Every structure is written in structure tokens, then in C-alpha cells.
Amino acid sequence: MAVSPLSSRTLSPLPPPHVALRRPGAAARAAAVAFPRKDPKLNQLDVSYYGQRSKWALRLSLAEQSPPKPAVDVERLVGFLYDDLPHLFDDQGIDRTAYDERVKFRDPITKHDTISGYLFNIAFLKTVFRPDFQLHWAKQTGPYEITTRWTMVMKFMPLPWKPELVFTGTSIMGINPETGKFCSHVDYWDSIKENEYFSLEGLRDVFRQLQYYKTPELQSPIYQILKRTGKYEVRKYAPFLVAETSGDKLSGSKGFNDIAGYIFGKNSKTEKMKMTTPVFTQAFDNELSKISIQFVLPLEKDLSSVPDPSQKNISLRQVDDGIAAVLKFSGEPTEDIVLEKERELRSSLLRDGLKPKMGCLFARYNDPGRTWSFTLRNEVLIWLEEFELD
């Protein structure tokens, strides 16, 4: 019984001999399938068969020629930055192998395009400014991008008064998808709007911080600067103790001698304690209906170890940890000036969407009788209801 050509192909799944028997390379196999030799006996079923083989062979050829690259492990790089960046200015230093040789570094007043220039800038800052770098957080913000938030506090050593310079902001760290290393580092400061290099506003911000403030070398409450804008700082204070009594106004000195007497031995143990700074006056509401004047007690003390006051008008209290916005200024702090600074600070906080509490504190760091007025360090503080460091 004769078998038709169609039934023969139906019973045999093998392709035509000139395709099935050849074993060329990937590119040749793709060409042979995509462009088969003409055969007048082929019908529509053969064309469909060859079309499917063509697509499969082309995909196979491309896969063999261009193997996929492994994805960059950005989460691992985030963890690396948490470990590495705290060493930015210490003797260990950062790991240069995590950066491309051609790495773009930019901040408002500095630029470098190589890892060597980047490391030179770090060494320069370390020598001249003695920076204290604090990393607040790091997180992925793009497929090949990590954003960090930080605070850097520096002292300008060449000037006799060694002024403190504070910068806070974010850094955008770009990742090279070919190498998995950092290829860019661009800083943005919170204190200015013009962050592109070269920023005259940034340069003015640096010079403005070189102002001479006389800060006594005495204990003071411990705080961490979370953010510095062009108007104020946001600080996170650790708990501290105060001895306080009633005052009359924010810039006043009523009650000062009473709490000074407590520090100098007028207490249940006749214990003399070392001086601290600043002296606070606090208004507990916006109407200034209640004012207290406060001395900060030595930081090693707690409520169980400090002596009781000898005078009934003095009380001891722990100020809990919290976040405060602070406006710093110099000059003679008259009552009108202090109130004006308080209004200026509160207005700035509300404009920036923060939630200031009622009342305020005025901090005096210097003895006004022994300090030139233009070098006095004065601060107005307002506690915040809540604050999120974004």
C-alpha cells in the first residue's frame, strides 16, 4: 500500500535530512533554520514547523553569545556603607576597593573625578578640620542608587578660636552596574538651596560659621545635631539634671544667686559641685506666665546621688531626653531681642512643617561681666512634639 508524502511526514517527527543531520555552530544553525533550502514538496505544515524552529534557534544563538550579567546586590552595599562610612575620618579610613577608579565626587564647593582626588579631599578635611562624622541612615533609592543621611561637625583648626562648623545633609551614591562599585558621590547640604557646584551660597555658609563664639570649656548637656538648616539646628538631647528656682523674665537673673549657692555648697552635704554651662531660663507657656532659672548639674550625677537643697525655693529635676530646635546668636541678650529670636524660630519651625511645643528656653553660655558682648554665645531652644529625620 502506497503512503502519501503527507502521511509520511505525519508518522515521522524528524525534520528534513538537511536540517537534522547537520551539526554547525550556533550562528550557522540559526541561519540554516531561519533560511531553509527551497523544497517544492513542502506544504504549509513545513513552513509553520520551520518558523517555530527559527524563533527558537535565534533566541538560543543570542543567549549563547551574550550571557546575562549577575544583578548588583544593592542591599549588600547598603550594609557595607553602614560599616564603612563611620571610618571616613579615622585612621582606618574607607575601603577604596568599593569605588571605581573614575568616581565623581561633588559637594557645593568641591569636586573630584577620581578615587585619588576623593581620598585626597578626605585627608585634607581630616587634617584641617578634625571632622566628626555621624551616619544616620542609608537606604536604596533607585535600581543603582543609595542615599545616606549624615551629620558632620568640624573645628577649623587654623583659627585661634577653632570655630565649629556643622553640616548636615544627604549623599546620593551611584553604583556602576558593570562593576558593582560606587561611581559617584554627590552631597546636598540642608543649610542651602544652591547645591550645584560651584555654589556661592555654600561658600557664604562656610564663612558665616567662622564667627567667633566664646564657649567655656565646661560640662554641658550632651546632644547630637540631627539637622542644620540656614536658620536653626535640630538637636537630640540626652537626659540631664537641673537645679531650678523661680525667675522673672527670660533674660533676667532673679534666682541666680540661690541656685549658684546650691552648687557652691549650700546643700545637705555642703558639697561643692563643679560649674557647668549653660544657665537656662525657661518659659513654660507662650504667655511667659511662669519662668524658672536653672543650673545644669554635673553629668555624672543622678537624682539619688545629688544632695538636697538647703533652701525650700530650690528644686531638683531631671529633664528627659527630647528633640529641640535651636537658634544661635551673639550680642547682648536683652528681653526684646530674646523674644524676637523666639518668634523668629517658632515661625521658621511652623513654616517648615514642624510641631513646636509651648514655651521656650533661653541658654546663656558665658559670664556677661567677663565676656565681650559680640562673642557671647546665646541660644533660644523650643522643644518639638515629634521629629522624623527624612
From TrEMBL:
Pfam families: DUF2358 (PF10184), SOUL (PF04832). This is SOUL heme-binding protein. Signal peptide: none annotated. InterPro entries: DUF2358 (IPR018790), NTF2-like_dom_sf (IPR032710), Reg_factor_effector_dom_sf (IPR011256), SOUL_heme-bd (IPR006917). Belongs to the HEBP family.
